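Running log. JK asked me to keep both predictions on one page so they can be read side by side. First protein, sequence followed by its tokens:
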Amino acid sequence: MTRARKSLIDLSATPYYHLIARCVRRAFLCGNDKYSGKNFDHRRKWLVKRMKLLSDVFAIDIAAYAIMSNHYHIVVKVNKNKALDWSVEEVIRRSYKLYKRGEPLVERFLNGEKLNEASLHIFSGIIATWRARLYDISWYMKNLNEYIARQANKEDNCTGKYWEGRYKSQALLDDKAILSCMAYVDLNPIRAKVATELKNSDFTSIQERIHNYKNTAENSKQSIQKTELFEHKSQPMQ
């Protein structure tokens, strides 16, 4: 029997999760499709770009990723306390990065209008919902997968499901599990024999780290280049 997604993700047990999503039809995220003869490498760029945009919105950091031909892996850390500390204005700002403005009570609040007790109660509920979504893995994945599906369907001039059911999630309960999973994700292209070296493993976190460290070394007298990847350091789980 399948388990509800909320029972598989328990932030009180661990903030670290391994997420996997796979294409449902004979469509590719990347590489050459032997049936159509088309190359879909550009779709990996869509995915990485969207993934990083979402991490600028959500309280969810990317620890590792690998974009394969018909599926992808992400290792994430959820920063619930960070989201709980955000001001009302910050919650609104981040939410509006993804969705069009137009919620009447939110607009009235932003315009400096004083809300009556009833309106304030409703407004507080809206903000609580938005805040909870900003540290919700399912909401993160919804915004990632639905966006890619729309882009791919538009390009393929078709409709219908693009992803295979729900995404899969695996809780990473200790440092050993976290580091082992990150290594597993980074080594995916080599294991699949689509790359022979880590530095040539396109669209992976390890390639991005190697590139960033190389640039830092070459420009050591300049300011250190910022990486968008979260660096996991062994420490007691909280």
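And the second, directly underneath as requested:
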Amino acid sequence: MKKFSMIALSLIGNVLLVTAQSLVSGKVTDSTYGDPLVGATVTLKGSYDGTLTDQAGKFSVKAGTGDSLVVRYIGYEEQVLVVGDQTNLNITMTSNYELESLVIRGVRALENDPVAKTTISHQEIEKEYVGQHPIFILDKKTPGIISYSESGTSVGNYGSMRLRGIGQERINFTLNGVPLNDMIDHGVFFSNFSDISNNFESIQVQRGVGTSTNGVSSYGGSVNFESINLKRNPVGSTVELGAGSFNTFRANYNVNTGISEKGFGFYSSFGRLWSDGYKDFTESDAYSFFLTGGYYGDRDMVRLTAFTSRSQNGLGYYVVDEQTLNDDPTYNLLIDDDNDDFSQYLVQLQHSHKFNSQWNMSSSLYYGGAGGDFAEGTLDDDSVYVENYFWTYYTTFFQINYPLKNDHFGLISNIFLNTKRLNLSMGIHAYTFHRENREAILPHNSNPYYLENSNKNELSWYGKLDYQVGQFNVFGDLQIRSMQLEIDPDYDFIGTSDNGTITKSWTFVNPKLGINYLPNQNQTIYFSYGFNGREPTKLDLYGGFQLNASNIDFVRSEDSFEPEYVHDFEAGYKLNLQRFSLEGNLYYMNFQNEIAPIGEVVAFGVQKRQNIPQSTRKGVELSWMWSPTQYLDVHGNTAYLKTAIDEVTIFGDNTYADRQHILSPEWISNENLTVHLRRNLALTLTHHFMTEQYMELTNDEQLKVPGWSTFDVNVQWGLGDKVNVALMLNNIFDRQYYTYGAPDFNGDPAFLIQPPRNFFLTTRIRF
């Protein structure tokens, strides 16, 4: 212990010695959005001395008066600055290819918009990414997010996230402005998007109502993915190979041609993923293919982006009581024959045009599809051939199959005006979404006992305005959404005569206002108000997955299930200093007829939701970054949440007053300590913390998910410019913990267990 203390004191002394030296420091940001540029090179002209910007875009470099600093970042114009008396520099860089960023401009918040947001760069994604779903990157980078996995791993299989205690089906997800949510049930299944995070240039998370976006309304928030930018990334190919606990293996190959002199370029990647999962019978076998490319001219960009993935998973959605988990942590109520086989695909054709220095436009045509089989049951002695939507395969299953198929066609078009003081954008979004649901007893897949079709159509318009007046920035946003859902019931299954199509229509007018005040270059203060309306899902209308004799009259009635509305009030403060940054915001969300889970599971682990007449969510969110030296970073986020329900009637005629929402912990915190041992060697220690949360709206003290605390370690080692090795050690103290729970079939508390100590090692080689 004494020897360790002496070594620690020696290291601290060396660090203090370095900080005593005179340094020129600064921050490098994007000129359009104000986002920090992570990994920009800052070097002394005529030498190899220099550094890279950190996660906040900040740098420190030794330089004397009269020296020239050269700042480079792929995809941006090079900057050369002469060092004078100033020792703190703010450097803004202009993108070479702003046409490519127009496709996300319609859904992204600008730097000075009064919105609680976090933007994660490609470099930050690379440091965290080993094949996991994107939600397991977001929960480390954004306040108020908690994510969980059904298989007990973050790689493959099914996972979900909550933001401000609000479930994934009430969070908007887009890729290049194109919606990823299922338009009828609003879900996003990242199991069907295997290895997609490898192809992201950036991710922006807006918390709360945020700005207008395409697709389902933002309630917990919105997550905007931007696909890889060809100009900003190195030309060449990259191989990624990884292996880890639970027989998890990952391989990915991608190639980037860059932009040729004639303006053409392409990027593509192919990935494979295998894992046994931590829980019994939760294996995953997945592949994915991603392609983007086209023509990138001075005034026009025409780009095709396509993605497809197929994922085969053993299922593990049932919660398990704690006594069983203590005896057998990997126990699964489902069996090896309970599995699914789904594919998802997305094609986007996008065009951006620059009319002049002020006017631009961007349009997208897209198609999204999904389909496959979900089989539940036991083995049969007879072997049969089964034909589904995509292939014919040999099986020995005699089970109930729940196949579905989605087809989603849409058009998005936006126009932008940018002047010195004014940013104006307007756009439309129109789509049609078709769903076919079947239920069949295998091997009679082509002769289902239940067959239902549904269609949803929407036309929406939005307009956004940012106007700068001195130190103030005024923000206005208006969205109008009009949609219709048509359901074609299976009347033979219901057992009644054909009464025609069931039609539901909704129209929402969603205004948002805000003001941003910049007292100086280091501080920002903002206030905003947003109003959103959101329609119920088909699952909400049915109270389950099937339209039958017991619920068809309720579904058909005009006042069956009400849409929900929210008034969202936000106030925030940002501070950016040379070595320290802080962002904090307060929010108050007032709901009418909130569509919220009650703690009852309808089927397949899915929570039943119902209208709650009056409820609120309020809280505080903080994120910070402190770099006391160029060798040490401390960063993290903390969120406090307090929820309240005035009165709710559940489980028949039982009425409860003054209750809290379920699955909404009061405290969520993530703290990170990064030590840069050498220029290309960094070690990060991460602490995750969450307090307890209720499972039911009764707020029974026996029905709680207990709080937990875990530690992870991430090691990044660059072997020259071409090879990078990353080691992730998760839950290093081997804690047994749960991030989700619900009452089991006996009404006792039960949980989805998360994995014990585990690791994943990945190697990235660039050619």
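Observation for JK regarding the second prediction: The chain has eight helices and 44 strands.
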